[in-house]
FAD-binding oxidoreductase (Actinokineospora bangkokensis), 906 residues
Amino acid sequence: MTDAALAARLTEITGGPTTPGPDDGHDECLTVAGREPAHVVRPETAEQVAAVLKAASEAGTPVTARGSGTGLSGAAVPSPGGIVVSFERMNAVLEIDTDNHVAVVQPGVTLQELDARTAEHGLVYPVYPGELSASLGGNIATNAGGMRAVKHGVTRHHVLGLQAALPTGELIRTGGKFAKASTGYDLTQLIVGSEGTLALVTEAVLKLQPRVAHQATVLAPFAGLPEVTRAVPRVVGSGLQPQVLEYIDGMTMAAITHTADLQLGIPDAVRESAQAYLVVVLDGRTQERLDEDVEAVAQLLSELGAVDAYVLPAGSARKLIEARERAFYTAKAAGADDIIDTVIPRAALPEFMTRVTAIAQAHQTFVIGCGHAGDGNVHLAVFQKDTATRSTVLHELFAAAMALGGAISGEHGIGHAKREHFLALEDPAKVELMRRLKQAFDPAGVLNPGVLL
Amino acid sequence: MTDAALAARLTEITGGPTTPGPDDGHDECLTVAGREPAHVVRPETAEQVAAVLKAASEAGTPVTARGSGTGLSGAAVPSPGGIVVSFERMNAVLEIDTDNHVAVVQPGVTLQELDARTAEHGLVYPVYPGELSASLGGNIATNAGGMRAVKHGVTRHHVLGLQAALPTGELIRTGGKFAKASTGYDLTQLIVGSEGTLALVTEAVLKLQPRVAHQATVLAPFAGLPEVTRAVPRVVGSGLQPQVLEYIDGMTMAAITHTADLQLGIPDAVRESAQAYLVVVLDGRTQERLDEDVEAVAQLLSELGAVDAYVLPAGSARKLIEARERAFYTAKAAGADDIIDTVIPRAALPEFMTRVTAIAQAHQTFVIGCGHAGDGNVHLAVFQKDTATRSTVLHELFAAAMALGGAISGEHGIGHAKREHFLALEDPAKVELMRRLKQAFDPAGVLNPGVLL
């Protein structure tokens, strides 16, 4: 099929032009350059998406899905000559089902929109990857995580069902408005986190929960990172169920508070001696229970070596969490050359951070970080202009995480950006099995080639 | 390869005889007859399991995994001439990791053993499928659920990682001691619930949590089942987070209390007018909080139409829950011809039960039930001796569940028992996709043929 014939076919399917715009071929990844696709379609229905995939499979033309373009691994960057399927017109919250506690959404719905809609019913979708303009479709493709994962889990744990278009042209429905099933292979969980390489999600059933009214944020400065990371398993083990358990190193804290012009009321003497911070957010069904829990966590943090523990006023707390969310942009503005998000067992954090320091020093590279400490998910900003050296540093950081029982990415995904490292470090038997699974979904190999595998 | 040559090869691998015993070829399924395998191996290491699979693939001989044999779908019944891999010697709790809150277990470990071992550390594996002699390997194969799923989720939500032997002979490790990753397809979740058809699990990393000390059980009689099922979404929506939310119909309650010789202290007048019961188990970090929550739930149940709400003494509560667990055996003893466990959105329970009654009446079949109401997982005991009529009844019950957005099985699995219904009712595009996934794992087609697909 000629390019013009394919364009005509795609227009026939979606009823719109297929001319790409300047923003259709990139995401927020620092290391993968954007690329304009040959065609972009903006379907309005699942049936259109399925028909586009069928046409692409027949033509052998690569297809890349696009949500809000906030991904960090280049998975939204299309192949040369490829089609981008942009979900901007499939952006409806189809249902908030208050009896079953689920939302049914189209993939183009943003986290912000979903939060507003669930709030009207006293419910919440508790996954909080930070970037509220992100789309649910993108969140599902990368299995997005974020700060509240330590209590509530990640995207995977909240996707109960999907409607998805297969590259072979069928539309399937998986799972449903229920949390348990033992009826065949779990296609839902296989598609979640597959970075647009297996199927395109056209609808998702998301688990909601009652919105908890009362919330408090405790900020605890510690002498150093080892003290913070050693405290983490104890806070999780306390049964106090923190919603957020973030560590922020001194340098990152200085940067994000400076950027956000944030006054946290920490005395200068404390701030100067604190090399690392732990942020603990607690919630409670009543103010009284929350107050008790805040008291208990402050006491515990003090026993675990915190210099002090500050309960932040609501305004500062919100600003700190927002600033922490924006840490990626702060690092980017500060000239970071790459940002990674390795995951390790949370008790291995102190050892991992020791290895990070050693790797950084060995290659004269500057590495700072913050992270979802409760989950062992460490975000590191890597400052190293030389591409080859940076690649070596990344390889060693990923290898260190894997040696400690971890994985390359906790929530950003592999995408184009980390594919080479993934293929080099992962067990070949698993890579081969994943290739066979990919083949089972996508015999023509059109869905996001070059991403992941 | 001759049968004798295969036996010799299997003995060489596992160091033991391969002569089957009388208990090696059945499970607790009421409708699938046991069958003695040609060979049984009792491996001691993951490497032996992988070598057995490799030999079986080369010989083209079917392989069926066996844990404690407590399954309810016939998935442990081997193929004619097949090999049973019994995990009775791989029954070690390898690690209770208190910092990361995980247990690492071999597949032959029972729920009872794991509970005892985690209790020593103040931790708990909260999945509670009821039959405590069941093995974790079997639980993983069927994605076992149980009564606490409404709060804690099912097996799937607690399996963080696996070591598994592939039919192609490799041993792989998936996931790890962390709750989040975005590093390739989620092989862990694909293997969980695959009923021994994709890979054999040789080790599992299970998520634990702090054991909560305080617990209370509230029993609420209602006039009828519609009243109970309408109350369920409201109790879940209250934010009180019940750990257990079971409905028991009047007939089942009479049977299980009679069998267990259980005195619940319910006045005769109430018992005679109550056609259905709701059992609510709450837990709390402190006795004070628990007492408050019990008060709140009793108040709520009363508003929702409960005749009364009884807080059961600890002894009776334990016995009731145990008796509920044993409901399968009670139904079996009462002559039930089949027991199924459809799942539907919980708000669809009233409508589903109406349809169940209509189907039962239309086919002059007796159907009673109880269920995990919070999850919409309904266990129905079907009394109908005629095989053809019973098959029609089952087909109609499953179709009714699917029409309401549900699935055939919530936690028992498809196995041999429900395969025919699964293949008849499921979307052919999904069945074909599952066949291709099966082929990707098991090109020789040796793992549990005739189960599921």
Remarks:
- Chain B has four domains: 3-88, 93-210, 214-328, 335-415.
- The first strand of chain B starts at residue 39 and ends at 41.
